[in-house]
Amino acid sequence: MSLDEFFVTGDPLILASQIAIALTMVGLIALITYLKRWKWLWSEWFTTVDHKKIGIMYILAGVLMFFRGGVDGLLMKAQTSRPELGLLDAQHYDEIFTTHGVIMILFMAMPLLIGIMNVVVPLQIGARDVAFPKLNALSFWLFFAAAMLFNVSFVIGGSPDAGWTSYFPLAGKEFTPGVGNNYYAIAIQIAGIGTLMSGINFIVTVIKMRAPGMTWMKMPIFVWTSFITSIIIVAAFPIFTVALAYMTLDRLFGTHFFTVASGGDPMLWLNLFWLWGHPEVYIVVLPAFGMFSEVISTFARKNLYGYKSMVLAVAGIAFLSMLVWVHHFFTMGNSAAVNSIFSLTTMMIAIPTGVKIFNWLFTLRKGRIEFSNAMLWSLAFIPCFTIGGVTGVMLAMAAADYQYHNTMFLVAHFHYVLIPGVVFAVFAGLYYWWPKMFGFKLNEKIGKWHFWLFVIGFNMTFMPMFFVGLDGMSRRMYTYSESTGWGAWLGFSAVGSVIMAAGFAALVYNIYWSFRYARRDVGNDPWNARTLEWATASPAPHYNFAVVPEVDSLDDFWYKKKAGKVGIKKSDLKPVHMPSNSWTPIFLGVAFGIVGFFLVFEWFTLAIIASVLIVIGLVANTFDYDNGYHIPVDELEEEEREWRGELK
């Protein structure tokens, strides 16, 4: 392989990116070295097994991926803002819309949501950590290695270009002989292994580590949505693992699982992909529903209306999510009976979704609503998501889908589902739980700029897509003629995307400003909240709770706070056992990334040699007999006095 084949050349935008990446890496290494922070990073972050720090690293990675995926989106919008514009050629546009979809769903939405779950779920159930802390760290480092592997594709080797769904035969070697779609198959496989580990970890954590007295129907709703999401992960991700394994074998070793001429079937890929892909929508949306529920209940100063019906609705959505995948290919030759059945199951999923909308509306009714930034995002979500849901029911009608399918109408629909249903929730969750992570609030005034710019920009960006889609504009079009009349709509949409980007920039500035200037004396419960995470210090200590709380009711912290029964007794303090840091998760993450990189370029000898690193990491972990350490009572007492004052 020549150097020109290894590095992507010939495109000024990519050349600028390569230079920027190199300068950023050199600058970052120089800064850390100058500040003498390498040892601190290694001991406090790279080797940590603390669920809160792992959650923060997930969130940081998700924000970085949001930036990368957002730049891809802006480039697409710039290219289609005017008829016959030549900013991007067809190949570059194909690569950008492919990486945009993969990054936003798998490397932005997933880490942001799993990051918040990591921070919040153990605190809400009164646990001191997740069930398997070291496995939790490995999950993160596998995800991060996969994200870096996937992102390096656009400067080394070339990006995948068969769409985020990577349909065959387009994704096969015959039509895409480069290494781009190898990156897709291998990077997502590595990330998927990490996600599957997270799902197993959270299921065991919720089942086995709830505080005494916290029965199933006393769990916070966010714990419920995280738990059910984890069940979907365990049910759906192995399907995608098999599909990606078949894809890897087809591309790297010449098998023909998806090649018609050799006895394979491209529809096998579609069925396996969407058997994972549609539940994946609910993997990212259900935790978001839990976040909105927590925020709305807190800032309406009311119990969540219809708690039991909400739990049943979430469980119903999880069940139905596995029964609707065929609606993604109504137009691909199914019989009328098959299309009718899956049309009905798709419409049925609107019922439990509608139940939740009414749960939130009735929670707001007669509430003493406080319009914090977290609450604003939750309120904006309801009408925007409803637009996405209603258009989803339109798409569920198989006959009508022949008109809508593969048009920009569909693109507008799923953005109206995923951006309000995931991104708005992440923003609400960050504003709400930020004090629990860092001990200070994000600035509310700057947050309002973030809110209004992003929400206005979002609607300006995606509402016009409904109209050009109904007028016949196909998705994936990188150019169009002036005679179509789409120029004004798409130009307006491009302006909206810039306003959205300004909203994201306001969030980044808010984080910077708040780290520098925000007050640090917000207390452990700045929002007058209802659930257990607010019963401990902000930021939460590494042991979470000096004394594991006992739960008597749903929203137990709220009622005990009102009754003056919060606090702990000095006599209740006992040594706390905690897990030790470990180097094996980051070592294994790096090893998987190296092996994956060699497999992308089909350097099998190097991949086999590098696989020895994985074996070394697994063997080292097997013979790691470190059983953790105990925090003595006097240390616990000192830390608790710092924020509680006198103990009882």
TrEMBL record:
Pathway: Energy metabolism; oxidative phosphorylation. Catalyzes quinol oxidation with the concomitant reduction of oxygen to water. The chain crosses the membrane at residues 12-35, 56-76, 96-123, 135-156, 183-209, 221-247, 267-289, 310-330, 336-362, 374-400, 412-434, 446-468, 488-512, 586-619. This is Quinol oxidase subunit 1. Belongs to the heme-copper respiratory oxidase family. Its cofactor is Cu cation; ferriheme a. InterPro entries: Cyt_c_oxase-like_su1_dom, Cyt_c_oxase-like_su1_sf, Cyt_C_Oxase_1, Cyt_c_Oxase_su1_BS, QoxB. The keyword Heme applies. Binds a copper B center. It is an enzyme of class 1 (oxidoreductase). It catalyses: 2 a quinol + O2 = 2 a quinone + 2 H2O. The keyword Membrane applies. It is found in: Cell membrane. PROSITE patterns: COX1, COX1_CUB. Its EC number is 1.10.3.-. Keywords: Cell membrane, Copper, Electron transport, Heme, Hydrogen ion transport, Ion transport, Iron, Membrane, Metal-binding, Oxidoreductase, Respiratory chain, Transmembrane, Transmembrane helix, Transport. It is a multi-pass membrane protein. Residues 34-552 form the Cytochrome oxidase subunit I profile domain. Gene3D superfamilies: Cytochrome c oxidase-like, subunit I domain (1.20.210.10).
